[in-house]
Amino acid sequence: MDNMTKKAIWKGIAAIIGVLIVAAAVCTALVIVWPLGGGSIIRNMKSSKIELQEIVPLAAEAQIKEKIRIAGSGDAVSAEEEKESNLTADYIIPDSGTKLLTDADIQGLNAQELNYAKNEIYARHGRMFDSKELQDYFNSKSWYKAEYPATEFDAESGSILNETEKKNADFLRDAENELEPGGYKLDQ
Questions:
Q1: Chain centroid to CA 172: how far?
Q2: Which residue did the predictor score with more confidence, 122 or 8?
Q3: By the 8 A CB rule, do 118 and 170 touch?
């Protein structure tokens, strides 16, 4: 073989080696960069989903704790919570229309809160109140719809309230009177 042929063969081999080196470098870069997130869309989506699964329950738990605090404290609720319809934060005792109350359900409530809780049972059915304090309080609730004047409601309450509500109203009245003889004084 002459010198020219040998040089051509070596040039061809060098070109092939160069292409292989470039290909190896590209493959190495892909192997290194891809797992680090450079283009790993599926992994990023899975990671985001896991992060959301960790964050969402914490946020929901915080909301529930806040609603429980508000429902049990008698404090005024925020505008955001007032906008939410039929949520437990809007009620002093959310289930007073469906389950018989016990001492545990009213533990820590003062005479005013017991009075409001008792009247909450009536307000759910649209009773209007002669007391400005009560009327203002229930007007602030998103679920409240004033429908019946107090005298009309009181005359018909026997047919409007279910047995659980009647027993709970009596229970709350008795508890209120026990804390404050004669009951909480409205509009003071």
A1: 28
A2: 122
A3: no
Mean pLDDT of 28-48: 57
141, 94 in Cβ contact below 8 A? no
Bridge partners for 148 per DSSP = 127
Rounded CA separation 107/175 (Å): 10
Write the CB contacts of 101 (distance below 8 Å, at least 6 apart in sequence): 93, 168, 171, 172
DSSP state of 182: T
Please name the amino acid found at residue 106: I
In a 10 Å sphere around its CB, with 0-12 CB exposed, 13-18 middle and 19+ buried, how is residue 91 labelled?
buried
Round to whole Å and give the CA distance between 140 and 100: 26
Angle at which helices 111-123 and 132-139 cross, to 10°: 70
User: What pLDDT, on a 0 to 100 scale, did the predictor assign at position 65?
Assistant: 52
Tally: H helices and E strands in the chain: 8, 0
Dihedral-angle region of residue 128 (phi above 0 means left; psi in -120 to 50 means alpha; beta otherwise): beta
Question: Residue 148 — φ and ψ, nearest 5°?
Answer: -120, 130
CA distance 178 to 167: 16
Here the tokens at position 149 are 């004047």
